[in-house]
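Subject: Re: docking follow-up (guanosine-5'-triphosphate)

Dear J.,

Thanks for your patience while I sorted out the input files. As discussed at Tuesday's group meeting, I've set up the holo structure prediction with guanosine-5'-triphosphate included as the bound ligand rather than trying to dock it afterwards. The sequence and the ligand SMILES I used are pasted below, so you can double-check that they match what you have on your end before we go further.
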Amino acid sequence: MKVQVVENVLRANDELAAINRGDFERAGVFVVDLIGAPGSGKTALIEATLKAMPDVRFGVIAGDLATQRDADRMAKFTNHVVQINTGKTCHLEASHVRQAMAGLSLDAIDLLFIENVGNLICPVGFDLGQHCKVGVFNVCGGDDKAAKHPYIVRESSAIVLTQVDLMPHVNFRQQVFLDDVKTLNPSAPVFALSPITGTGLESWLKWLETARAGVRRGEGRKL
Ligand SMILES: Nc1nc2c(ncn2[C@@H]2O[C@H](COP(=O)(O)OP(=O)(O)OP(=O)(O)O)[C@@H](O)[C@H]2O)c(=O)[nH]1
Ligand SMILES: [Mg+2]
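The structure tokens for the complex came back this morning:
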């Protein structure tokens, strides 16, 4: 009986995610779900991306248990920001995104970031209607995190390794991390970068632009 309930919840989520995806595709909005541990640098990555691509019309849905602090940070770069507070829920669901969409004008957005609740585990299982998931790992989290969180690595279209400016201060073996990602998901590019110093940001921006162009040509689902 319990299994049945869980299946129903996931089916309802997937149905709503499909409706979200249809709306995004009709409006020509490329949607990226950023998933990473608390404090891994998701908001800093979005801030730097918005700043570096002034010609792109960005929207952001920020998911956190509480506060609108992330939304306030990103509102400096775009007017299209909605904060979702999930309370005790450790991930965003398609219904949260649906609610947030009511506060966004999709026609005024080219690229929508969904910053998921800081958590490498729970968000992975929930389709939101995004075109791709991007796993965000930070060097301070340790070089074993890709291996310990295989599901997000396998489901991601790209992996960001952030806070690389802090590499000299922590014991992070980059090759171990890269080898683990390669084993789990050989086709996912890894962008080692620091939004704070700007190191490595260019390749990430290029990938984002190429992926967005692919969706405009109707190739989004192949990511
Ligand atoms: N030195 C350095 N600090 C960084 C970098 N990226 C993020 N930070 C800092 O790390 C802290 C956490 O960054 P956030 O961007 O808030 O992380 P987050 O993943 O959005 O956090 P939650 O939304 O709370 O899960 C902040 O103090 C950032 O300024 C980086 O590349 N280098
Ligand atoms: Mg954040």
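A couple of observations from a first look. The pocket of guanosine-5'-triphosphate (ligand 1) is lined by residues 36, 38-44, 70, 118, 162-163, 165-166, 194-196 (CB under 6 Å). The chain has a mean pLDDT of 95.

Let me know if you'd like me to rerun anything.

Best regards,
T.
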